Structure formats: structure tokens, C-alpha cells
Amino acid sequence: MPDTNAMRFATDASDIAGALPLYVIERSAVDAWCQTLDTAAAAWVKASGFTGALGASLLVPGANGTPIFAVVGFGDASARIRGRFHLAAAAQSLPEGTYRLTGGLPEGCSDTLEHEALGWLLAGYRFDRYATQKSRGASLVAPEGLDAARIEAIAEAEALTRDLINTPASDMGPADLEAACVTLAARFDADITVITGADLLEKNFPMIHAVGRAAEHAPRLIDMRWGTAGPKLTLVGKGVCFDTGGLNLKPGASMGLMKKDMGGAATVLGLAQMIMAQKMPLQLRVLIPAVENAVAGNAFRPGDILASRKGLSVEINNTDAEGRLVLGDALTYGAEETPDLMISMATLTGAARVAVGPDLAPYFTDDAQIANALDAAAQAVADPVWRLPFWAPYESDLEPGIADLDNAPSGGFGGAITAALFLRRFAGDTARYTHFDIYGWNPKAKPARPKGGVGMGARAILAALPDMLDL
């Protein structure tokens, strides 16, 4: 489990008592605010060149040189709309100490205190499994009126997702991912079962077995359950712990980040932790097909036709389109219990990245209630999503003629859509189904989101669940 000590609000009584006041000032309000200060403090602010620019920070000393308060800039609306977690940007630059937000956020700004406080905590994340990382020394007293425990639980779950993605495949293979699930299940008294290796064939998960059979570490299907009452929610996460591309081998440049190809599994585990920590009144099931797509003499081949749990035959035109195969069997299994909502999350297609870039989490649904709930929640919690269509006219592209389905239609157009349509064939008509095609990686450092693994869409889903499931 991740070390989240740096991702909590200040709790030491002496630190809280001695916390420095922290003011958040918009650019347009700096002059007026300075007029409320004593002469020496106002002179220091002006002499330091503090303009209220977004992310700027300043310590203001008293007569003896000891800091008496801090101020951070909040820019203006046009600057803030170009990013998120603006308070976290200042938190990165403030020196070691404990700070107490004074006066809240500027009146009338659209940012919420809750997600700015969360951003402060997320800015404390460090991936230090292999090398010591410089810790951030700026701590925040939990702002009044907020559910501090809930915010900390969300930050801790996001840290779990980031740690799982950031860990290389040498230490995060299928067995290691299973171990992470077992640890999480034990913490929240959830039940867990795992089907491994040849048992996948015996129990009718042929596509999961086919994708993972060439790897040294056996493929498996992880099944975690929590809760005994309320609507049924099933989360399915792609757990391809490393993807070479199989016999359609990826070039080196494309293979370098493939430790993150289990980002869907990591994200649903983070979301599951949020749900269980908040004791949401629902029945949760998490399904993770955990495999490595490796190269060996027994690897599945281009041109092979695979059986599936659904009974559909699948022609393999590209072994690098393996995620939809393992998800297909898992989705079929999940749909057999007719959940009230089934959500899959996967680092599935490069087409999704081309369409919306690395920040947005594109999703597919045919349900207007789900879409409205997700869009509203995403905006409220600063976890952006973007709806893409299950475009039915592309269904014929999935049908190769000699099998029921094609795992990689030729032509390259609408790749994220055809992949989502492929998955929908296995989710069937027995469940309300939503699919997220996420990236799971932050290519460059941003406030509260260092370069590396990152959760996408989980907080939006969490916030939308009461509306999606009528909780």
C-alpha cells in the first residue's frame, strides 16, 4: 500500500496551533487586499513583486523576520480555466511548515474548496519505491466545513492507483496485481476469488487464457466482492501488466510505457477503495483479467480464431489488440449476474489519445441518465470526462465474415469507437454498460499530478454514482 503520510491534513496539535495564515488572492484584488494590511506587510508584498499571478506564493515576515502569514496568487478566471488544482501549484513552492487557509477562496470563483484541498493533498504524492524522493514540507490544516476524512480517503485511493501504474512489470505482474487486490480485500473485509492458468480454460474464459498463455506468469481472473445490500455495481478493469504487442511486436518506442497497460485495473481498484472507504450502500464487484501479452512459441497468432465465453468467435487480425479480448470474457462473466450498472476501464486505444489527448477520460454510454450524471460530476470534482458515441453504423466493421467478430478492423478510422462496440457485444443487453478508454499516464508534471501514473475518471464516477444508481 502507498505511504500517504504526506497526503493528509495536519493533525499534530502544536503544528495546528502554530499554523501560518494562508491567504488566496486573485490578481485583481491584490491592491485592495494590501490596503487591509499594516504598512510594513503591505510594503513587503509590493516590494516582492507579488501580483496575484496564478500559482505565485510569498511568505511575509514580521518585525523580527519570522513569517507571520503567507499569500498565494489565484490569477483570474481566464487563467484558471486552463488548468485545475490551482492551490496545489502554490503548495509546491511554499516552504516547510503548516498553513491554515484564511478567508477561503475568492468570492465568486467557480473553483470549489473541496477539490482545491484535495489538490493540495495530491501534490504530496511521491513514488519512492526505488529511490528517495524529496518530500513536500508544506502541510495544510483541514479547512472548516469540509469532510476531511473523505478527502483523505480519495487522495489515498488515488495514491494506490498511481503506485500500481508506476511500478514496473518486474514487480507488478499478474501475481503482484493479484496480491494488491488481496491486500485491498482484506482491509475492507471483501471476498476474493482468483481463477488461474489452465483453470481459465476449464471454467470457460478462453480469451483471457489465450492472451496470457505465452507469459512466464500465468494469466488469471480476479473477482472481488463487497457489500450485501443495495444496487449492484460491477467494475471491470483491464489488467495487462505488460504488453509487448505479442507476435505483432510493438516497436521499442511504443513498448516503453507498457507497464501502464494495467491502468484500467489500477483505476478500478482505486475507485473500489473510495467506494468501500465511504461505505456506499451498494453491492460492489470488481473483475480484473490480469495477464502479460508476451512472445513465445505458444503465443496466439494473427489469423487465429478464438472462442469466447460469450460463444462468439473472434478473428485475430492484430495480437496487439489484446485488451478487448481479455475484457470480453470478463464482461460476459459480469453480465451474467445482471448488475444494475457495469463499467469497464481500460488503457485500450491510441485512437482515444489522438481524439482527446492525455487529460480527458473519454467514455461511451447509451444511457442519458448516466451521461448527464457523469458530465455534471466531472465538472464539480475537476475530473474531466468526454462522451464519445457507440456509433451503430460502425458495427459492420467488426464482422470479418469468417468469424463473428474482428479484434482489429482494418482502415484505422474510429478506432476507439470500434473497440467500444466490440466490448459492448460482450456486455450484452443484461446490464447498463459504460466504457472508459483512459490513458492512465501524465506525460508532464502539472499541479497535483506529477509525471507518471494517474487515475482518470474515478472521482467523476464516484461523485456520479448516487445519481446513476439512485442511491
From TrEMBL:
GO terms for biological process: proteolysis. GO terms for molecular function: manganese ion binding; metalloaminopeptidase activity. It comes from the Bacteria. One of its GO terms (cellular component) is cytoplasm. Pfam families: Peptidase_M17, Peptidase_M17_N_1. The keyword Protease applies. InterPro entries: Leucine_aapep/pepB (IPR011356), Macro_dom-like (IPR043472), Peptidase_M17_C (IPR000819), Peptidase_M17_N_1 (IPR048816). Transmembrane segments: none annotated. Residues 318-325 form the Cytosol aminopeptidase domain. Keywords: Aminopeptidase, Hydrolase, Manganese, Protease. Belongs to the peptidase M17 family. PANTHER family: LEUCINE AMINOPEPTIDASE-RELATED, PEPTIDASE B. This is Leucyl aminopeptidase. It comes from Litorivita pollutaquae. The lineage of its organism: Bacteria, Pseudomonadati, Pseudomonadota, Alphaproteobacteria, Rhodobacterales.
